[in-house]
């Protein structure tokens, strides 16, 4: 026993980890309630069983991209024609999620935002560990705490900035879906057998372990938990997820098919694999979703070596473009044939509080977009802000006439071809488009480096997909020397032009946000990262993967990252 005068430092508290697991994130008693010995053992079991298949799937992604770079085009796989033409259906839709007419999305932290989303009047809240969340240790762990408490019904928040106002759940709330990260992203704060864990298995594993029983007993009504799965490019990746779900169900002792997941079709290769993806997940499927912003990003990335497929200004690449409309229609037909939901895309607008006319014009754009979706056959759609939900519900519920969805609607019979899905978009490319890409990309990246993954910019709620479009489009234009319109004068996209644009747009951003905020933020660092990405000789797969090392903080401080 130490004496009263003993100056030996006390042992710092640490997480109770199973063999082979090392936690490098900051210790916090609240986090320790999530990172229990048994929960970490569950995650480690997932990692050890599936890391081999994940590595193989990621290598196959790279192999496919090499073929596209050599001139091959994405296509339907002849070897799985029997799946596409077969007469099969996914498991019946759980009654708890039959009605998904409007879903709101947002990060799993901050806590108040989670409560507001669950109380928003939407049918579903997708709590995000992916594009809307910067994956700092603090964000990830607080997000896990928030979701555990949300499922338990005990989540609350006292807002000192609003005079101590207390936020808590209403009697009726949105159903909770959770989106883990994509297969490609590591979790550098959790080492398993000496290597970073697969990020999505940490996200899924911790949430499932702590919340599956309460979720099934409550809002899932015997089913669940429910998930969204991002960034897949091939059905082999869906097969891995199906294996993860089956292992989780066995360990938890719950019925096979309890877990349900909606796959975001947000990569160009995946649109040629929709039947195959649903088939792999057929006992666990909750349909597909049009992740349209990431889909545009993927179009550029897939065709990065194809100068005949340059995108116009990103503002012109909407659902009216033939390849985008074809993608949406094929997704609807595929889902309804397989008896699951076909979810529409994101409405990213946020209320414009100081301009009623501009706000109404923005809402009208949302109404038109959602009317197009519901008429095309979508069963529900996404909103980025609670203020959009009444308008969207009015459009969808007015069209559906009391039905929960339109899965039973007859599908059109006209064929959608491979060429329909890759037809180059039409429109102009401008220096102003280069400027907007740069301004938005740098501001988003600065916020992400500062810990915010969901950022309001120019009356839109932006996440990582927007920054990715900005980055890859700038890269594509520079790589192929695209001719840009500069107010009637044709100029060629070059690194010198981009350098001048970055300098001028950084000055504009500083003027918009103020000198003090600019100085305290990570804008200069973001500018350096963004321009490096735009002029790189080879296009990096993901901006956030390249920048991830800048937000990893190991404890004790100074421990080198193993990335």
Q: Roughly how much helix do the residues carry, as a percent range? A: 40-55%
Q: Separation of termini?
A: 41 Å
Which value, in Å, is the CA radius of gyration? Answer: 23 Å
- Report the uncertain regions: 1-8, 557-563
The helix count comes to: 20
- Mean pLDDT across every amino acid position: 95
Beta-strand percentage range: 5-15%
Summarize the main sheet. Answer: 8 strands, parallel, barrel
- Total beta strands: 17
Strand order across the biggest sheet?
Answer: 2-3-6-9-10-11-12-13
Topology of this structure?
Blueprint: E1 21-23, H1 29-32, H2 37-69, H3 81-85, E2 102-107, H4 111-118, E3 124-128, H5 137-152, E4 156-159, E5 165-168, E6 175-179, E7 186-192, E8 195-198, H6 199-217, E9 226-229, H7 235-252, E10 260-265, H8 268-271, H9 274-280, E11 285-290, H10 292-302, H11 322-337, E12 342-347, H12 356-376, E13 380-383, H13 389-400, H14 418-422, H15 431-449, E14 455-457, E15 460-462, H16 464-479, E16 483-485, E17 490-492, H17 495-513, H18 515-520, H19 523-535, H20 543-547
Parallel strand pairs: 2-3, 2-13, 3-6, 6-9, 9-10, 10-11, 11-12, 12-13
Antiparallel strand pairs: 1-7, 4-5, 7-8, 14-15, 16-17
Helix pairs in contact: 2-6, 2-7, 5-6, 7-9, 10-16, 12-13, 15-16, 15-17, 15-19, 16-19, 17-19
Describe the structure.
- The chain is α/β, with parallel strands linked by helices and 563 residues long.
- The chain has helices at residues 29-32, 37-69, 81-85, 111-118, 137-152, 199-217, 235-252, 268-271, 274-280, 292-302, 322-337, 356-376, 389-400, 418-422, 431-449, 464-479, 495-513, 515-520, 523-535, 543-547; strands at residues 21-23, 102-107, 124-128, 156-159, 165-168, 175-179, 186-192, 195-198, 226-229, 260-265, 285-290, 342-347, 380-383, 455-457, 460-462, 483-485, 490-492.
- It has an 8-stranded parallel barrel, surrounded by 7 helices. The chain has a 3-stranded antiparallel β-sheet with strand order 1-7-8.
- The model is unreliable at 1-8 and 557-563 (pLDDT under 50).
- Its main location: other.
């Amino acid at each position: 026993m130490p004496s009263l005068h003993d100056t030996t430092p006390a042992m710092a508290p640490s997480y109770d980890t199973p063999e082979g697991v090392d936690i490098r994130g900051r210790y916090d008693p609240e986090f320790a309630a999530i990172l229990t010995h048994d929960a970490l053992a569950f995650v480690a079991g997932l990692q050890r069983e599936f890391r081999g298949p994940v590595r193989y799937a990621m290598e196959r992604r790279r192999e496919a991209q090499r073929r596209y770079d050599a001139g091959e085009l994405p296509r339907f796989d002849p070897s799985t024609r029997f799946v596409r033409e077969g007469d099969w259906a996914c498991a019946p839709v759980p009654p708890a999620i039959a009605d998904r007419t409007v879903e709101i999305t947002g990060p799993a932290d901050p806590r108040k935002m989670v409560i507001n989303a669950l109380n928003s009047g939407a049918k579903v809240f997708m709590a995000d560990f992916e594009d809307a969340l910067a994956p700092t240790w603090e964000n990830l762990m607080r997000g896990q705490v928030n979701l555990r408490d949300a499922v338990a019904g005990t989540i609350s928040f006292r807002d000192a900035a609003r005079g101590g106002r207390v936020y808590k759940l209403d009697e009726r709330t949105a159903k909770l879906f959770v989106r883990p990260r994509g297969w490609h992203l590591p979790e550098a704060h959790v080492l398993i057998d000496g290597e970073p864990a697969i990020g999505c298995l940490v996200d899924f594993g911790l949430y499932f372990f702590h919340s599956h029983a309460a979720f099934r007993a409550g809002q899932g009504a015997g089913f669940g938990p429910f998930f969204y799965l991002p960034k897949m490019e091939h059905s082999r990746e869906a097969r891995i997820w199906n294996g993860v779900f089956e292992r989780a169900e066995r360990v938890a002792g719950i019925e096979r098919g309890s877990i349900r997941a909606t796959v975001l079709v947000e990569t160009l290769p995946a649109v040629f694999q929709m039947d195959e993806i649903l088939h792999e997940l057929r006992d666990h499927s909750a349909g597909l979703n049009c992740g349209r912003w990431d889909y545009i990003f993927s179009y550029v990335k897939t065709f990065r070596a194809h100068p005949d497929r340059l995108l116009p200004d990103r503002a012109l690449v909407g659902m009216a473009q033939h390849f985008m409309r074809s993608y949406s229609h094929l997704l609807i037909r595929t889902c309804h044939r397989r008896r699951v939901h076909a979810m529409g895309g994101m409405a990213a607008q946020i209320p414009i509080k100081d301009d009623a006319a501009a706000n109404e014009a923005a809402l009208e754009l949302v109404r038109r977009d959602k009317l197009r979706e519901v008429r095309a056959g979508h069963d529900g759609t996404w909103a980025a802000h609670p203020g959009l939900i009444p308008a969207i519900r009015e459009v969808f519920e007015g069209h559906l006439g009391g039905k929960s969805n339109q899965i039973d609607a007859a599908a059109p019979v006209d064929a959608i071809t491979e060429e329909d899905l890759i037809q180059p978009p039409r429109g102009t490319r401008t220096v102003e488009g280069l400027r907007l890409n740069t301004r938005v990309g740098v501001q988003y990246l600065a916020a992400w480096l500062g810990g915010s993954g969901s950022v309001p910019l120019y009356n839109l709620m932006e996440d990582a997909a927007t920054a990715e479009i900005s980055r890859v489009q700038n890269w594509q234009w520079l790589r192929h020397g695209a001719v840009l319109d500069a107010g009637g004068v044709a100029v060629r996209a070059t690194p010198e032009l981009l350098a001048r644009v970055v300098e001028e747009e950084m000055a504009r951003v500083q003027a918009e946000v103020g000198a003090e905020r600019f100085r305290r933020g990570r804008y200069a660092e973001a500018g350096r990262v963004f321009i490096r990405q735009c002029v790189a000789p080879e296009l990096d797969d993901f901006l956030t993967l390249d920048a991830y090392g800048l937000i990893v903080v190991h404890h004790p401080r100074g421990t080198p990252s193993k990335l």
